[in-house]
Amino acid sequence: MTLKAYYQNRIEKLCATINQNEGWIIEHPQDIFYLTGFALSKGTLLVAAKRAVLLVDGRYQSAAKAMCSIDSAPLEEETFERLFSSGQFKNIVTWFVDGSQTSLIAMEAWEKRVDILHKKRKNEPKKLLGVKKNPVLNVRAVKDDLEIEALKASAELLMQGYKHLVSILQEGITEKEAALEFEIFCKKQGAEALSFDPIIAFGEKGAYPHYHPQDKRLKKGDAVLLDLGVMKQGYASDMTRCFCFDGEYSARMQLFFDVTKKAKEAALSLVRAGVSIAKLEQSARSVMKEHSLEALFTHSLGHGVGLDVHEMPVVNRLNTEVLKENMVITIEPGLYQPSVGGIRLEDTIVVTKEGYVNFFETLSL
C-alpha cells in the first residue's frame, strides 16, 4: 500500500463516523498530519462525507500540492475568525459544500470562539457552524500497520536510551544530569524529540508521579524511578522502570514493587480485543486492595499512545468502551507514599484479537 493510500484510508475511516450532512473543521496539526501526512504548524482541514480539502497559507501551498494526499487550496487569512468577521467565511463554506445541505462542525475547543463569531455575524444561519466532540481522536485510537511500525521503532530507540541511562548512573550524579545525558544520547541516535520531559526520581522523590528532575544526587541504596519517552518517525514511546541502585529496597518499597508487578500482570492477563477497558484497572486495583494499598494508586491505569504520548483511549475504571484490535495503550500501575517513595511499572502494548504484543517485553522489570 502506498503512503497516500494509508492517508486516504484514514480519511475514509473518519468520514464513516460522521453524519452525511456534516462537514468538519480540523485545525490541530497532529490531526491534520494523521489524515494527510502533511506536517505544518498552521492550517485548516475541511472534511465532509465525500470531500476533503486542506486550506493553507503561502508558506505551505507548493509543498501541500506536491506532498499532500488530498486537494489543497490557498488560505490567505491565517484564521477563520478573520474570515468569518469579514464575511468571507460564508463564501468558503458555499465553495466547500458546493450547494449541498452540509453544515460545518467545529471541535469542542472552538466553543467560545464559535459563540463570539455568531454574535459578530448575527445574520449568519446558526447551522453554519456548530460544535461537537472531536471525531478524529477515536479514529486515531486504532492504529494501522504504518503507525504500529513507527511506534515499534520509537520503542526500540527508547530501549537503547534506557539502557544507556542505566549504564551511566553512578553515585553522585544528579537527576538533572541524568536527564540531560538521556536526551543527548537519544537525539544522537535519531530521536526527533523526547515525547515528554523525563521523570527521573531518586530516593523518596519517586512518590511524586509527575516529578521533574532536580539537583538531588544519587546515593547507594536509593530507589530509582525512570519514566521515559522519545519521538521517532513522528510517533511517541513511553515506559517506566524502577530498581534499587547498588543495594536493596526497604521492606516497604519491596512490598510496593511486588504488588505493583502483580497488579500489572493481572491487568495484562485480561487484555484482548473485546474486553471492557474498565476491567483492566479494576483487576489491578483488586490486587492492591488485597494488600490494603489501593489508596496509594492515585492515577489511571494507562492511556493510548500515538502521534501524542497521551491519546485515546483513557484506560481507567470509568471507561465503558471495549478494547479494539490495534489499539496501542500503556499499562502503568503505581504505588506512592510521601517520605517513603514510589513504584510505577509501565509497558506499551498493541492489543490483538487473542491478547497483546508488548513493545518492551525484552526489557526486564
Describe this structure as you would to a colleague.
GO terms for molecular function: aminopeptidase activity; metal ion binding. This is X-Pro aminopeptidase. Keywords: Aminopeptidase, Hydrolase, Metal-binding, Protease. The chain has 365 residues and is of the alpha+beta class. The protein folds into two domains: 3-139, Creatinase/prolidase N-terminal domain (Creatine Amidinohydrolase, Chain A, domain 1); 145-358, Creatinase/methionine aminopeptidase superfamily (Creatine Amidinohydrolase, Alpha-Beta Complex), CATH 3.90.230.10. 36% of the residues lie in helices and 22% in strands. It is built from eleven helices and 19 strands. Strands 4-3-2-1-5-6 form a six-stranded mixed beta sheet. Strands 7-10-11 form a three-stranded antiparallel beta sheet. A three-stranded antiparallel beta sheet has the order 8-9-12, covered by helices on one side. The two termini are 37 Å apart.
Keywords:
2 domains; Pept_M24; 365 residues; Creatine Amidinohydrolase; three-stranded antiparallel sheet; aminopeptidase activity; alpha+beta; aminopeptidase; six-stranded mixed sheet; Creatine Amidinohydrolase, Chain A, domain 1; single chain
Shape: globular
- Total helices: the number is 11
- The succession of helices and strands, N to C, reads HEHEEHEHHEHEHHHEEEEEEHHEEEEEEE
Our measurement of the CA-to-CA distance between the termini, rounded to an integer number of angstroms, reads: 37 Å
Q: Mind telling me the CATH superfamily name of the largest domain?
A: Creatinase/methionine aminopeptidase superfamily
The mean pLDDT is: 86
